[in-house]
Write a structure and sequence with these properties.
By secondary structure, this protein is α+β, with helices and mostly antiparallel strands. Among the domains are: about 70 residues; about 160 residues, Immunoglobulin-like, CATH 2.60.40.420. About 30% of the residues lie in helices and about 20% in strands. It contains eight helices and 15 strands. The chain has a six-stranded mixed sheet with strand order 10-7-3-4-5-14. It has a five-stranded mixed sheet with strand order 6-12-11-8-9. A hairpin with a 2-residue loop joins strand 1 and strand 2. The longest helix is centred in the N-terminal third of the chain and has 34 residues. The chain starts with 5 loop residues before the first helix and ends in a 29-residue tail after the last helix. InterPro entries: CcO_II, CcO_II-like_C, COX_ARM, Cupredoxin, CuRO_UO_II, Cyt_c_oxidase_su2_TM_dom, Cyt_c_oxidase_su2_TM_sf, Cyt_o_ubiquinol_oxidase_su2. One of its GO terms (cellular component) is plasma membrane. It is found in: Cell membrane.
């Protein structure tokens, strides 16, 4: 075997050292150095939890090395006792220390779960400033698509694709949904991730405290274009935000239902897009999965089902209450206010059909309802 000269070894190590740093190229320290107060608190929670766990890990690792060295065969330690099997003081230390740490972790987890609840409106801008009770959060409606992000500012009447902006020190209230498959909305510099699911709405409250250009992305695998499902979040002062809004409004494009349907088609690496106008209630239609013409909204279907179902409803039958306070459900006539226990008869029903037990809210002889009693619930007075 050829022995290497020390100088040769040092030269070889100097050549190899830069390659050892290559794995660190995929690391991003933004989670530990965020720009928003919510993300700051989450960073502190990570540090506190790690420190509490290290209180056990470090002593155990150090004692493992110390015991292995002290009681090695050649050491011949004077206190070595091969028949030793129990120590009360050691048992107390082994069980009490982890128990205290678990209690501390439990207390930290319980308090942070409530304080950092994404559905909880913010009560502070940062650690030194409370939120002004008269200040109104910036409303942003988010739709995750394949594979892009749509942001709607309902109060400003604008929308963007793959670009988000907000003033610093102003709370932001996100309403989030998805058009097709589950995703996860995540801006590490702003707050933790929260899922975007089709037909469901999640909520996130956050605030940016430092101006900057930050990255947002989907943190949940959603198909072929997942790795490119990214957007930019611009935190800026109020004047800069006003200029950004003016730039969006200068686009002249409108995000209507037809444009939304086109955006829904899968696409990758979509550049930022601006819309100076947004069709009213577009996010409501996206949430209820009824943007496409003729498609019935989920909330309308659920209301119809809760009313017993009619079977002939059109897409606009159950938009809500009539002006006179009644509910229009498909082919049924609305129930007049003040009348209880009566079902409005469908238009065109024959007198014979009206006299049937089912039409009168009564059951045929021998039939029972779900409680084991005869008679239909709909025919009861005073319900």
């Amino acid at each position: 075997m050829i022995a290497r000269h020390p100088a040769t070894k040092r030269a070889l190590l100097r050549r190899i050292a830069p390659f050892l740093l290559l794995p660190l190229g995929g690391c991003n320290w933004v989670v530990m150095s965020p720009a928003g107060d919510v993300a700051m608190q989450q960073r502190d929670l990570i540090l506190i939890s790690t420190a509490l766990m290290l209180l056990i890990i470090i002593p155990v690792m150090a004692m493992t090395i110390w015991f292995a060295w002290k009681y090695r065969e050649k050491a011949k330690a004077e206190d070595y006792d091969p028949e030793w099997d129990h120590s009360t003081s050691l048992e107390l230390l082994i069980w009490s220390a982890p128990l205290l740490i678990i209690i501390a972790l439990g207390a930290v987890t319980w308090s942070s779960t409530h304080l950092l609840d994404p559905y909880r409106p913010l009560d502070r801008v940062d650690h030194a400033r409370k939120v002004d009770p008269t200040a109104k959060p910036l409303q942003v409606e988010v739709v995750a698509m394949d594979w892009k992000w749509v942001f709607i500012y309902p109060e400003l009447g604008i929308a963007t694709v793959n670009e988000l902006a907000a003033p610093v020190d102003r709370p932001i209230a996100f309403k989030i949904t998805s058009s097709s498959i589950m995703n996860s909305f995540f801006v590490p510099a702003l707050a933790g991730q929260i899922y975007a699911m089709p037909g469901m709405q999640t909520v996130l409250h956050a605030v940016a405290n430092k101006p900057g250009n930050y990255e947002g992305f989907s943190a949940n695998y959603s198909g072929a274009g997942f790795s490119n499902m990214r957007f930019r979040f611009h935190a800026m002062d109020q004047a800069g935000f006003d200029r950004w809004v003016a730039k969006v409004k200068a686009s002249g494009a409108t995000l209507d239902r037809a444009t939304y349907v086109k955006l829904e088609q899968p696409s990758e690496k979509v550049p930022p897009m601006y819309f100076s106008g947004v069709e009213p209630k577009l996010f409501h239609a996206a949430l209820n999965m009824c943007v496409q013409p003729g498609k019935k909204c989920m909330d309308a279907v659920m209301m119809t089902d809760s009313m017993g179902g009619a079977g002939k409803e059109s897409a606009h039958d159950v938009e809500g209450l009539r002006h006179d306070g009644t509910i229009d459900v498909g082919g049924f006539h609305p129930v007049e206010p003040g009348k209880k226990g009566e079902i409005a008869q469908p238009a065109g029903m024959t007198p014979a059909a009206k006299r049937t037990p089912a039409a009168q809210g009564k059951q045929a002889p021998g039939q029972q309802d779900g409680d084991g009693h005869g008679g239909g619930h709909a025919g009861h007075e005073g319900m």
